[in-house]
């Protein structure tokens, strides 16, 4: 029974990440804050959004998002403010602009390069003369027969 309780607590841990004192009284602003928080990375937990993280830094980021929304900022302005402060790494879905285009394009470019190298290899292999297809001379055949008789 204790194990089941422990497993349920671990599974439900992210549900307790947003503390009741963080929740805004305006449901519309709270919904916007939740939407923004889902796209921001916890800098401590790495691949967890700040809404699901129990880290202290994630709490600070959630409070910052809510403060900016209460101050009247748009969703884009809030995200831009957080990115300006913490860098683009804070975004769970990085932009494709700037130097990031190389990261986005690296996978498909490597795939195309690998396919091209494979195609070149196959073409050269087809064009190469077949080895070992030459028949034995009469002298070599006689020698082979002598060896096999022994």
UniProtKB/TrEMBL annotation:
<dbReference type="InterPro" id="IPR038297">
    <property type="entry name" value="CcmH/CycL/NrfF/Ccl2_sf"/>
</dbReference>
<keyword id="KW-1133">Transmembrane helix</keyword>
<keyword id="KW-0472">Membrane</keyword>
<dbReference type="Pfam" id="PF03918">
    <property type="entry name" value="CcmH"/>
</dbReference>
<dbReference type="GO" id="GO:0046872">
    <property type="term" value="F:metal ion binding"/>
</dbReference>
<comment type="function">
    <text>Possible subunit of a heme lyase.</text>
</comment>
<keyword id="KW-0479">Metal-binding</keyword>
<keyword id="KW-0732">Signal</keyword>
<feature type="domain" description="CcmH/CycL/Ccl2/NrfF N-terminal">
    <location>
        <begin position="6"/>
        <end position="148"/>
    </location>
</feature>
<keyword id="KW-0408">Iron</keyword>
<keyword id="KW-0812">Transmembrane</keyword>
<comment type="similarity">
    <text>Belongs to the CcmH/CycL/Ccl2/NrfF family.</text>
</comment>
<dbReference type="InterPro" id="IPR051263">
    <property type="entry name" value="C-type_cytochrome_biogenesis"/>
</dbReference>
<feature type="transmembrane region" description="Helical">
    <location>
        <begin position="101"/>
        <end position="122"/>
    </location>
</feature>
<dbReference type="GO" id="GO:0005886">
    <property type="term" value="C:plasma membrane"/>
</dbReference>
<protein>
    <recommendedName>
        <fullName>Cytochrome c-type biogenesis protein</fullName>
    </recommendedName>
</protein>
<dbReference type="InterPro" id="IPR005616">
    <property type="entry name" value="CcmH/CycL/Ccl2/NrfF_N"/>
</dbReference>
<feature type="signal peptide">
    <location>
        <begin position="1"/>
        <end position="17"/>
    </location>
</feature>
<keyword id="KW-0349">Heme</keyword>
């Amino acid at each position: 029974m204790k194990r089941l309780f422990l497993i349920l607590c671990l599974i439900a841990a992210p549900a307790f990440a947003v503390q009741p004192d963080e929740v805004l009284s305006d449901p519309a602003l709270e919904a916007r804050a939740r939407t923004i928080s889902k796209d921001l990375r916890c800098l401590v937990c790495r691949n967890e959004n700040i809404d699901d993280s129990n880290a202290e830094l994630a709490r600070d980021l959630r409070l910052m998002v809510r403060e900016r929304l209460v101050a009247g900022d748009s969703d884009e302005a809030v995200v831009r403010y957080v990115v300006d402060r913490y860098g683009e790494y804070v975004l769970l879905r990085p932009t494709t602009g700037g130097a990031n285009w190389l990261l986005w394009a690296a996978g498909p470019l490597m795939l195309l390069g690998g396919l091209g190298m494979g195609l070149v290899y196959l073409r050269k292999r087809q064009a190469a003369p077949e080895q070992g297809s030459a028949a034995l001379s009469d002298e070599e055949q006689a020698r082979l027969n002598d060896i096999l008789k022994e």
